[in-house]
Structure formats: structure tokens, C-alpha cells
Design brief:
The structure holds two protein chains of two kinds. Chain A is of the alpha/beta class. Chain A is built from 13 helices and five strands. By secondary structure, chain B is an alpha+beta fold. Chain B has one domain (about 5-135): Histidine kinase-like ATPase, C-terminal domain (Heat Shock Protein 90). Helices cover about 35% and strands about 30% of the residues of chain B. The chains are: A alpha/beta, B alpha+beta.
Chain lengths: ~300, ~150
């Protein structure tokens, strides 16, 4: 931003000022919610945290890279800033509110700056310094936002990984019968995980029948159908017969009109029907106990 | 002409996650307009196929979703736009089972069967736009306006 260009001299002066007034600024910042609510062990702890941030800002000023979020000076406090932002976010503050709190740190510094230059006749120097300070605080704000966003992205990636594992349990329904209730979107990554855990379960349980229940899959398009077919084919190679259950009427009509041929796959409307099929095929008959043997009621 | 009654919603198609978002948004819009469950499922499935085509073959693009009104009839128009290589042989691409991407080859032809109106506009080297329209009643609104 050309209109915010700060002369190197001004930046250095600001750096020197921050260093000189380190103690006073830290004392004022320590009472700001951003520090007070995060460093709760003692006030001294909060003051120390403030000083760490101030040292970083002074360092950045001296290097003259007021607008550079990548300035090496920020490196030392990046972790701390990330923790602060994360703590405020956990307390229910939105990124915008956190950014507002960071911007609020400028006010006490500006006041000190004006007080120090009060007797100085050179108005331009004061203005230049406060402007440099404004640039520096907005850069600090960006740095904090950046750490928040990247922390959020890491969290999402981690949760996605967890979802992959959590969402594909293989359940033993009967001796030799395993089932996977599929829930949500069946993309390539998910179907790969499903296939692996199903094939493992077929080996572990010595299952002759595997049921894929798609009750919880909202959309069955040609890719999902292809994934299902591949899983069925792989199970078949392992010596297990695969049954796809949980096909809702709307899905059935859509599959037919889409032109997908599931004719080679055994399908049943519900999971219970699929289990009944698997049991019948194995010659297992499940019947209610005859009333005469049930004893008096 | 179909008169749009609301502004067009534009959704990006750039990743698998975007496809899921497209499906959810189409399902929501279709449900809000009063499409029955079978129609909703067909429309969402067609959208899923076409959005994936835009992603896999077109290298990504976007979907435009517009609510239509013709008299009392409500409809939904979905346009899938990509700036990919285009389709050289449309007739071949519309053939059941023909695929260049390792799929089942049912996406384009299947999507056409799932909706009332289907138009494909492609220019080699400039991209492809597939537009589908479906109406709540299941029938296109009668043409009005002729004296």
C-alpha cells in the first residue's frame, strides 16, 4: 500500500519507542481481555506475554518491515498469538471480534506516544509515528488471523481423517454374516476405506455373507454405484457373497432411469431382509419359540 | 420464456467437497420449492453427475442455480459451466457406457434421462455448459402468451 509507506527512520523510531516504553505498555495491555483471559495463572504471566509480543513488534519495526506478515520478528510469538486467538475463539468470539480486540491494543500505545511527544513541536513526527503504529497493528492483526485460519484448516483436515475411520464400522450380525452401514457421501476415499475394512472383516470373521447397507447414503449416482460394484466384486473374490440393502424407492427409480445395471448384485430393500436372505442361504431358521414351551405367562 | 423470480445462486465446482455442497444446496432448493422425494432424488443425482463431469473432464467450473416461475408452476434451472477442453463428439459422449474418465459412462446420458429439459453447449477448447431444468409438477408448464 503506497500511501502507507513508512520512512525507515520513522519505523526505527517506533521500534525504539516500543522498547523504551516496554514496561508501561505491557502493564496496560495485561488488563486487555485478549491477554487477561488467556494468561490466567497470574498477572505477571500476562505481563510477560505482552512483553514477548512487544519485543516482536519492536523487532519488526527495527527491521522496517511494518507491513510484512512474514517478517522474522513475528516468528518468535507466532505460537503464542495462535494460542491466544484459539483461546478467544473457544470462549465464543468470532474472528472479527478477535481482530477487533487486537486493534484495541493500539489505543494505549498511541496515548503513550502522544504523551511522550507532547512537548515536541514537530507534529509531523508524531503523526508519522502513530501512522506507523497503525500499520504495525494491522499487520499484527493479519498475523493473528493467519494463525487462526491455518489452525482451523489443520483441524478440518484432522477431523476429515477421523471421519473416514469412524464412519465405517463393520458389524458382525451373525456367525458368518458381517454388515457395513454406510452413512453420508460415498466418495473415492471413503469407499476405499469401506472396502478395506469390509475385506478385513470378511477374513477375520470368516464371513460368507457381507451386507452393504446404503440407507444412510443420500445420493446414489453412477460413481457411488461403481464404488458399490467394485466392493461387491472384491468381496466375491474373497469368497463372500455381498448383499446391498437399504435401497429406498426414490433411489431405486433414480438408479433405473440413470441406466445403471445392478442386476449382478443381490439387493434387498432393508437390512432385515438382507439378513434373512443370508440366514436362509446358510440353512439357518430363526423362529419364534413355540407358545407351549414358553411356560406360563 | 421462463422468468427467473429470484437471483441466481452460483456455487464453485473445484473439489470433491464442492460436489457434496452442490448436492446439498440443490436438494435444499428442490425441497423448498416443493419437489417430491423422487424428483428431488433424480435432480440431485443428475446434478451430482454433471458437477462431477465439470470437475473431472472440465477441470472445474461452477454451477448456477436459478428458481423459475411460469404462472403457478415452479421450477429449478441448473447450469454447469466449465472452461475445459470441450466435448469433441457429443453424440458419442451421450452414448450409454462411453467413458473417457474410467467411470461407468452413464453420467451424461443418465442425467438427461433424469430431468425434463437438457441442453448441452460445447465448444472445443472453450468449455462446456450443460443446463437442466425440472418443474415441480413433473410436467413443463403450458406455453402461455400466444394470442
Amino acid at each position: 500500500m503506497a500511501d502507507h509507506d513508512t520512512a525507515p527512520g520513522t519505523a526505527k523510531e517506533l521500534g525504539a519507542f516500543l522498547e523504551r516504553r516496554r514496561e508501561q505498555i505491557a502493564q496496560r495491555w495485561a488488563d486487555a481481555a485478549l491477554f487477561r483471559t488467556v494468561f490466567t495463572v497470574s498477572r505477571d504471566e500476562a505481563v510477560e506475554a505482552c512483553k514477548a509480543v512487544l519485543d516482536a513488534l519492536a523487532d519488526v519495526s527495527r527491521s522496517g518491515r511494518l507491513e510484512d506478515v512474514e517478517a522474522p520478528g513475528f516468528g518468535t510469538v507466532r505460537d503464542q498469538l495462535g494460542r491466544m486467538a484459539a483461546a478467544r475463539a473457544r470462549a465464543g468470539f468470532t474472528p472479527v471480534q478477535i481482530a477487533g480486540e487486537v486493534a484495541g491494543l493500539r489505543e494505549p500505545v498511541t496515548a503513550l506516544l502522544r504523551a511522550e511527544f507532547q512537548d515536541d513541536a514537530d507534529d509531523e513526527r508524531v503523526t508519522a509515528c502513530t501512522q506507523a503504529l497503525a500499520v504495525l497493528t494491522s499487520t499484527l492483526r493479519l498475523v493473528i488471523m493467519e494463525t487462526t485460519v491455518s489452525a482451523g484448516e489443520e483441524l478440518i483436515a484432522r477431523q476429515r481423517q477421523q471421519l473416514l475411520e469412524v464412519a465405517t464400522p463393520v458389524i458382525k450380525l451373525w456367525d458368518g454374516v458381517v454388515a457395513v452401514p454406510l452413512i453420508g457421501t460415498l466418495d473415492s476415499a471413503r469407499s476405499q476405506v469401506v472396502m478395506e475394512s469390509l475385506l478385513e472383516a470378511i477374513v477375520d470373521q470368516r464371513a460368507a455373507y457381507a451386507i452393504l447397507d446404503i440407507t444412510g447414503v443420500p445420493t446414489v449416482d453412477s460413481l457411488v454405484a461403481q464404488h458399490l460394484m467394485k466392493t461387491v466384486a472384491a468381496a466375491r473374490l474373497m469368497g463372500a457373497e455381498c448383499i446391498v440393502s437399504g435401497i429406498r424407492p426414490a433411489i431405486a427409480q433414480t438408479i433405473v432411469q440413470l441406466g445403471i445395471d445392478l442386476g449382478s448384485i443381490i439387493t434387498r430393500a432393508g437390512l432385515a431382509d438382507a439378513l434373512a436372505y443370508a440366514l436362509t442361504q446358510q440353512g439357518i431358521v430363526v423362529s419364534a419359540r413355540p407358545v407351549t414351551e414358553a411356560g406360563p405367562r | 420464456m421462463h422468468a427467473p423470480i429470484t437471483s441466481t445462486t452460483r456455487l464453485p465446482i473445484g473439489s470433491d467437497a464442492d460436489l457434496a455442497w452442490v448436492r446439498q444446496q440443490v436438494r435444499q432448493a428442490a425441497a423448498d420449492l416443493g419437489f417430491n422425494l423422487v424428483q428431488q432424488t433424480k435432480l440431485v443425482t443428475a446434478a451430482s453427475e454433471l458437477a462431477r463431469n465439470a470437475l473431472v473432464h472440465g477441470g472445474g467450473g461452477h454451477m448456477e442455480m436459478t428458481v423459475l416461475a411460469e404462472g403457478a408452476h415452479r421450477g429449478l434451472r441448473l447450469s454447469f459451466v466449465d472452461a475445459g477442453p470441450g466435448i469433441r463428439d457429443v453424440e458419442l459422449a451421450m452414448t450409454d457406457g462411453y467413458t473417457t474418465g474410467g467411470g461407468l459412462g452413464m453420467g451424461l446420458s443418465g442425467a438427461k434421462r433424469l430431468v425434463k429439459e437438457f441442453t448441452l453447449d460445447t465448444r472445443p477448447g472453450q468449455g462446456t455448459t450443460v443446463t437442466i431444468v425440472d418443474w415441480v409438477s413433473g410436467l413443463p408448464a403450458p406455453r402461455t402468451g400466444a394470442p
